[in-house]
Amino acid sequence: MKKTNGKIYWILLIAVLLIMTSAITGLAAYFEKIIVNQEMDKMIIIAENNMAAMKYYFESRMEAMDMLFMDQELTREEADTIAKQYSCEQEQITIQTQTESQLGPAEITGWDLTGSDYLLRIQKPLMGKTAQMSIRLSLVYDQILRPVQLGKNGYCAMKDENGILIMHPAPSQIGLDSFKGRIRQYPQLDPDDVGQLLIHQYSQPNGCDIVTSYWWDRPEEGKAKKLISYASVTIDGHRFVGTNVMDYREVVRPIQLLLLYSSLLAGLIAVSFAALIFFWQQEKRKKEKLELVLEYTEEFTRMNEKFQAQEMQIQKYDKLQTLGVLSGTIAHELNNLLTPALLYSDVLVDELEDETSRQIAVQLKQTLINCGEFSNQLKDYVRQESVQDSLEMIDFNEAIQENLRFLKHLVPKRIVLYTEITNELCLIEGNKRMISQILINLLNNAFQAITDRGEIVVSLFRLDNEAVLQIQDNGKGMDEETLEKIYTPFFTTKSEQEGTGLGLTVVWRLVQNLGGTLQCESALGQGTRFVIRLPLSGIMNRL
After folding, report:
1. Domain total in the chain
2. CB-hemisphere CA count at 13 Å for 203?
3. Which of 41, 446, 447, 499 shows the smallest number of beta carbons within 10 Å?
4. 351/272 Cα distance (integer angstroms)
């Protein structure tokens, strides 16, 4: 009978391992999709900003031509003098005689390929002559697009209205038709894949696709999977499309790390299960086997602490969006794995006759119970809806307190966190994911603003038909110039390791989506206060 029970336990263990492997693989694929979608949204913003910068640059050059040659009485000699004075390596101005020319506004007249570089022409009609500015697009690329960081292999490029590449980091690609030319150069390319991307680029104002192609300056490396975002802009009647390219492998690396560490964690728990089963089969060696279980449990604790430290580094890299993915997965899997462990520990407590061994089993059971409680708290905190989920009625008061219960463990020791939360019901239209993201971003900014000892006050109260959330710190504060730019995407006063400049932009957009307003008050040396006002749900008027 005992041998039969032992076989059943081993079969159950193998079944649990198979289920865990399937669940971890499925969850990894699910969260990979979430992270890729978030990265695609970021890349679309970058593409839009890049093309806005290009539009500003070319329009400013046309305005400069209008200003330099606004005098319709200019002689040829005077015009030549101005052209020489304002010409440079990037922008060459020349004067040409045209008898029938009349004074008119500057305009883009075309762009020509010279070697591996394009010259874009801006022409200003004058009386009896024309002034022409020739702009080297390779130098414009170096100035505006090349500095944009898109991972190790990423880059930016720009096409004209005919799909011809006029800016690209690889000189061999300049002047190439982005569809026909590349199909000729790389016959292995999937024409449907590339063609679908071009259709999207020229039929939509912006977007982001996943495409398999090559690194054009390193084709010997073979095909590569890429994220390609795009945005179009019209400059003086000409349509240009800017593209941003990022290596897909760099985007999904956090999920791969998650899969690796989850597998290690699952393997460690499986070993613990095997030890328990073997202990149950070998009753004569109860004491030795219980000590082995405790040893494995201690090893599991050490590995879990090491995993959490590595997890914090991943959170630093992927910002606060990845925190929910990683923590939620760990909490979910740990809960699933602790359930059979608790069942086995109950069996041990009931079946063991030796009092010393039974006490050890009781301690083991309590340890597992404590792990389960911590897992449930973590799971409750990070449970969030997807970005596309619709708004619903939530208690703003309850959502804030739930987040604070978890975040108080993350407050640095040098900072004291005070809360002044009203007990009044505050129903709003929103979702808990938005509230978590707003509170995390604002508190993270407050933590970094306090360089020494300090304090943060979080208060929530009702005022008329609004719920008012205030977060105030006594950190270093901001001057007026910085205060005007804090909601600008990618603007940051922090180092590259501390911030990306998107945190307050995300908060501002979330507050707007909730129908509220966001205000910031700050002065150098006097700290900062953020005030969020959200409209209460109409149902509050009937309560």
Report:
1. 3
2. 6
3. 41
4. 19
